[in-house]
Specification:
Layout (H helix, E strand, L loop, with lengths): L3 H43 L4 H26 L5 H17 L1 H16 L7 E4 L2 E8 L3 E5 L5 E5 H5 L4 E2 L6 E2 L2 E4 L6 H12 L12 E8 L2 E7 L1 E2 L4 H18 L24 H4 L27
Helix pairs in contact: 1-2, 6-7
Length: 306
């Protein structure tokens, strides 16, 4: 015969109590999790920790506490959690193997946030991209290039490559050259260029402008013109320096650099249009009228006067 009292007392009441207890634990646990997360966030904010790291820490803490809360509720309900934990660990390994690249970017993002080799607003060159850092995310770093393109670079590529931070120091050097002709007075050119380039806006006074002889080529000497400025003024100083070099050359009437060559015939060769026999003749050349100097008929070009 069906015993309703036994069903209620032995099954329904204990099961109902477990459900009520699970609901209470979930509610109280949620309140505790929110309280702990807020406390951690406030503590990290007071220490001026990067907002990205604060959000990451808070999210990770919430997820870990929720998982612990769920395991506690399952244990209270009488469900064995050992096998569940083993299954969760196996799933974590499988997900980690499948998302190895994504997790690598994630780990690199944590190192970028903690070590802080650069910050948002810095101009950097990393991962083959040069631009201003918009955001350091957990998986990618967002850059805006000089031609106003937004580029997303994986954190693994950024952290695993050389990082050049252009805004780290107070100033940087602008490298330009000035090609001069052979006839230009080098000392005068150096003085003129130093004085003119130093007048360009945003060129720092210390260190001063460097103008030195860089090399010599067939067209003449080459001067290295190197002003210094802050990175934000680099291109303005770059173009203004080129303009200043052109202005100084025009004001000083410098000739246009051109390659000069001297053709020297080999010994024994005749001049153009003169037979070889005449060039090699031992006869005494005729004397010009008026007692002038003698000029051999077969004189070679570029040869010294007798």
């Amino acid at each position: 015969m069906f015993d309703l009292d036994k069903l209620v007392n032995d099954y329904l009441v204990p099961f109902g109590l477990k459900i009520v207890m699970a609901i209470v634990i979930w509610i109280v646990g949620g309140i505790v999790i929110n309280l702990v997360a807020r406390l951690v966030r406030s503590a990290m904010t007071r220490r001026n920790i990067d907002p990205t790291l604060v959000r990451y820490t808070e999210s990770s803490l919430r997820i870990a506490l929720r998982i612990a809360l769920i395991l506690s509720i399952l244990s209270v309900c009488g469900i064995e959690t050992t096998s569940f934990a083993a299954l969760l660990a196996a799933a974590g390994i499988a997900i980690g193997a499948a998302w190895s690249g994504l997790l690598s970017n994630f780990a690199s993002g944590i190192f970028l946030i903690v070590l802080r080799p650069f910050k948002s607003g810095d101009m950097i060159s990393a991962g083959g991209v040069t631009g201003v850092v918009d955001e350091i995310g957990l998986f990618v770093t967002t850059l805006t290039t000089a031609d106003n393109l937004r580029v997303y670079v994986g954190n693994t590529k950024v952290f695993g490559d050389n990082i050049t931070v252009y805004d780290a120091n107070a100033y940087r050097r602008v490298d330009l050259t000035a090609q001069l002709a052979h006839t230009v007075d080098l000392q005068d050119a150096v003085v003129r260029l130093k004085a003119r380039v130093a007048q360009i806006p945003n060129v720092v006074e210390k260190p001063g402008v460097d103008v030195e002889i860089l090399e010599f080529n067939p067209s003449g000497p080459v001067l290295a013109v190197r002003p210094y400025c802050h990175n934000r003024d680099y291109w303005q100083v770059y173009f203004d320096t080129n303009r200043a070099i052109a202005e100084v050359g025009g004001t000083a009437h410098w000739p246009v650099p051109a390659t000069r060559q001297i053709l020297m015939p080999p010994p024994g060769a005749s001049a153009p249009g003169v037979p070889a026999s005449a060039a090699t003749s031992t006869a005494t050349p005729p004397i010009a009228a008026g007692g002038g100097g003698a000029t051999p008929t077969g004189a070679l070009p570029n040869s010294p006067a007798p």
